[in-house]
Amino acid sequence: MISGWGHRFRATLYLAFCNARYEWRLILCFVIALTAVEGPLLVLFGLKFGIVDGMTRGLTEDPRNRELIPVGSGHFDSQWFHEMGRRADIAFLSPRTRLIAGEMHLGVSGGTNASPIEMVPTGVGDPLLGDGVKAPEGYDEVALSAAAMRRIGAVLGDKLEGSISRIVGNNHEQAKVTLKVVSVLNESATAREIALVPLDLLLASEQYRDGFGNKALGWPGKEATLRQEIFASFRLYARTIWDVAKLRDHLAAQGIEIRSRSDDIALVESLDDHLSVIFKIVALLGICGFSASLGANIWLNVDMKRRDLSLIRILGAPTAGIVIFPMIHALLIGGLGLVLSIGVYQLAAMGLNTIFADIFRRGEICRLLPEHLVIASAFTVGIAALVSMLGGLRAAAIEPAKELRNV
Amino acid sequence: MLYEMSDLKKTWSSASTRFVLRVPDLAVSQGEAVGILGPSGCGKSTLLDVLGLILAPDGAKSFAFCPKPNVTIDASTFWRDRRMDAIAAVRARHISYVLQSGGLLPFLTVRQNITLPMRMLGQEDDGRVRELALLLDIAPLLKRYPASLSGGERQRVAIARALASDPAVVLADEPTASLDPINADKVLAELLRISRDLGATLIVTTHDALVVKRLGLRPLRHDISKDGSGVVTSTFYQ
């Protein structure tokens, strides 16, 4: 190292800070100019991410999009359920009884609003229940859809009185069961009035209608001796919406006709692809505009300092100091602009999310993940450093005498 | 000798003309006060920049700079090898400049401007700034920024800055061109007196032969010739 390099380098840094302090108004203008471009760009990206992510999430989260419904009834044995259940592209599979057997009169104990509600077999992992919602178990628990809750006027935790009836000979018989509402389905899960119950309760009521009794439930009659092995139908959900078509084809190959939203999904899939391309183009344009703005901003700043830089060089500043001098300003501008832009974004996001809270129901409409902000920061600081370094190198390459005499 | 050069050549061009600066032989000894005389555009600023190690000569048979009795810097080798930081180090340690318009940094106070060369060398102000400020009559201005000073005050501050780091040589490029005649004479006389007091060599460019005579500077004369192709050659003699 050349003698005194450290002193001269440190003196140059000191000069850079003195200069920044002296020109704080100018720096503030540059910061505002940068914020004017970067702030709205962050909001735009936030909206893009919030909307697309919300839409995709809405699509994937709505269990109806992942449901495969068999048309008519068939014969599905436990072997079939066992084999299907092993497939990795299945999220939930449950046997289902004949539709006609699955209805129960439900009402709040002591209430007057008892209504016939369709029973749907459920279990752990049922997409209708959603994540972290308790699945009903045994013979005394039930989960109701929001519409069913309204129909009978129940609230979570209520004890319900359920009854099913049969006609034996000329006698009209009725069996009763007490069920506790352990979960309520999300409004978005289904609009129908349904009660999710464990398969065993559904089977017991089917057997009751067929003339059998059930000891555990205290229903009179001969106990059914054989456990049911053959089912007329099933409930099936694919793991993701992208698995639906493959599953449908697999079942069709077995002669099982399926109703699903796979055509809608294909449409959404291609729409998603197109939207992604459009957003990529918008993002690219935005980033180009932002880079150009920041670059021009900093280039101008370096250009305005060329005479000062020449003077500083004549006074003995080392080359590294001349390169770093404008970089300090650029990083100051870039850093402050970034902080201000993120502030602008936060405010705008807060406002937008409040305004659209009722309209956009799929989470926050304007949203960025922490890693997005990290990328934005790295980009801003990187461009600021790069452009100012190029400017500094250019300033360092100029013969100082030339610069001083030409002014 | 502080400077010794022979057969030095530097070419440069303006918009319309090509210029050649030639120095067949030049020697300046320590403590001397030299005046480079000539009209504007004759290459005297260029010669000053070459002496100040700001401008690289195209070539020289020899170009030695001896700021101290036992330190000799072969400037032509330094330039040939593009040892820019080494040159900057020599400049910071031994050479000071007083520019036409002061060349003060606008974002530093007067005191910060004056102490800058010392800061570059890692020196502390041991009262020298105060001493120089009193000698140059600028003590009340130390806390002000250059923008609020008059032309004469700025030149005085520039002189104080030039002498703050105890340089071997002070190069002044028409230091009083922007001042009125009375102020100009006063400032030049002060520059000469203080440089002498501090033992620094002083090299001044001026277009005024009377100034050189009045201050008793050793004049450096030159010839200008223009050849058939329009190239202007300026040759400086002892």
Annotation keywords:
heterodimer; A: 407 residues; alpha+beta; six-stranded mixed β-barrel; four-stranded antiparallel β-sheet; 11 helices; 53% helix; elongated; B: 238 residues; alpha/beta; 29% strand
Characterization of the model:
- The complex is a heterodimer of chains A (407) and B (238).
- With 407 residues, chain A is α+β, with helices and mostly antiparallel strands.
- Chain A has helices at 5-22, 24-61, 78-85, 146-152, 199-209, 244-253, 262-304, 306-314, 319-355, 370-397, 400-406, and strands at residues 67-70, 76-77, 90-96, 103-108, 115-122, 141-144, 159-168, 171-184, 194-198, 230-231, 233-238, 258-259.
- In chain A, the strands form three sheets. Chain A has a six-stranded mixed β-barrel with strand order 4-5-9-6-8-7.
- Chain A is elongated.
- The mean pLDDT of chain A is 85.
- Chain B has 238 residues and is of the alpha/beta class.
- Chain B has one domain: P-loop containing nucleotide triphosphate hydrolases (Rossmann fold), CATH 3.40.50.
- In chain B, 35% of the residues lie in helices and 29% in strands.
- Chain B contains eight helices and ten strands.
- In chain B, helix 4 (110-120) runs parallel beside helix 6 (151-164), helix 5 runs antiparallel to helix 6 and helix 6 runs parallel beside helix 7 (181-198).
- The relative contact order of chain B is 0.20.
- The model of chain B has no long low-confidence stretch (mean pLDDT 88).
- The chains are: A alpha+beta (407), B alpha/beta (238).
- The interface between A and B is medium-sized, with 30 and 30 residues.
